[in-house]
Amino acid sequence: MNGRIFFKRYIVVIRIMQILLSFLPRVLIRFFYSIVSSGSSNFLVFVRFLLLSRLCKHTGPNFFSGPNIVFKHIEKLSLGENVSIHAGCYLDANGFIEIGDNVSIAHMSSIISFDHSYDNTNVPIKYNPLKLKKVIINNDVWIGCGARILSGVNIGSRSIVAAGAVVTCDVPENTIVAGVPARVVKRIN
């Protein structure tokens, strides 16, 4: 049974479990997530969904999270319906990350929503203030394995980011981007 069918069939039970989890403190939810974050069974995928729906700013139904995903500043992460984030991804939502519906993020990809500033020469760059910049990934986007999405980027609907691409500027809708830095290589319908 795929995720969409499962969520439609058991939506009432899922909502009850989410309500029960809302009474637990976030620190305990984070602890439970750290325990189940590395497994790949269907049961652990479901438990991760329940825990992440409590930790994220918003999650739509039928959200899949693979094993060993690192979420930083998860309270600033918003996920739409039918989102899948596969094994080994890294998402830092310090500047806010918004992911639309029907988005697939392949394994080992990174999404970063901030830059380091370097204006204050009296301190090392790593101690300079951060520049927070929102990342928006619109509906119907496929991000290939090992892609890097950097801060301030808006990825248009029905777009594909090729494997290994480094996205440093906005991606128009209905396009495929590839390369370092990513450039439009094809328009799609």
SSE topology:
Elements: H1 3-9, H2 11-21, H3 26-36, H4 42-55, E1 58-59, E2 64-65, E3 70-72, E4 77-79, E5 84-85, E6 90-92, E7 97-99, E8 104-105, E9 110-112, E10 114-116, E11 130-132, E12 135-137, E13 141-143, E14 148-149, E15 154-155, E16 159-161, E17 166-167, E18 175-178, E19 183-187
Helix pairs in contact: 2-4, 3-4
Features:
189 residues; alpha/beta; UDP N-Acetylglucosamine Acyltransferase, domain 1; seven-stranded mixed sheet; five-stranded parallel sheet; 4 helices
CATH architecture: 3 Solenoid
Calculate Rg over CA atoms: 17 Å
| Percent helix range | 10-25%
User: pLDDT below 50 for ≥5 consecutive residues: which ranges?
Assistant: none
* Alpha-beta content class: alpha/beta
Q: What is the number of independent domains?
A: 1
How far the N terminus sits from the C terminus, by CA atoms, comes to: 30 Å
- Name of the level-1 CATH class: Mainly Beta
Taking the sheet with the most strands, its summary is: 7 strands, mixed
Count of strand segments: 19
Q: CATH homologous superfamily name?
A: Hexapeptide repeat proteins
Residue share in β-strands = 25-35%
Topology-level CATH name: UDP N-Acetylglucosamine Acyltransferase, domain 1
Counted by DSSP, the helix tally is: 4
Q: Could you give the order of the helices and strands? A: HHHHEEEEEEEEEEEEEEEEEEE
Shape: globular
Spatial strand sequence of the major β-sheet: 2-5-8-13-16-18-19
Walk me through this protein's architecture.
The structure is a single chain. By secondary structure, the protein is of the alpha/beta class. The protein has one domain: Hexapeptide repeat proteins (UDP N-Acetylglucosamine Acyltransferase, domain 1, 3 Solenoid), CATH 2.160.10. It has four helices and 19 strands. It has helices spanning 3-9, 11-21, 26-36, 42-55; strands spanning 58-59, 64-65, 70-72, 77-79, 84-85, 90-92, 97-99, 104-105, 110-112, 114-116, 130-132, 135-137, 141-143, 148-149, 154-155, 159-161, 166-167, 175-178, 183-187. Strands 2-5-8-13-16-18-19 form a seven-stranded mixed beta sheet. A five-stranded parallel beta sheet has the order 1-4-7-12-15, with helices on one face. Strands 3-6-9-14-17 form a five-stranded parallel beta sheet, with no helix packed on it. A hairpin with a 4-residue loop joins strand 18 (175-178) and strand 19 (183-187). It is globular. The model has no long low-confidence stretch (mean pLDDT 93).
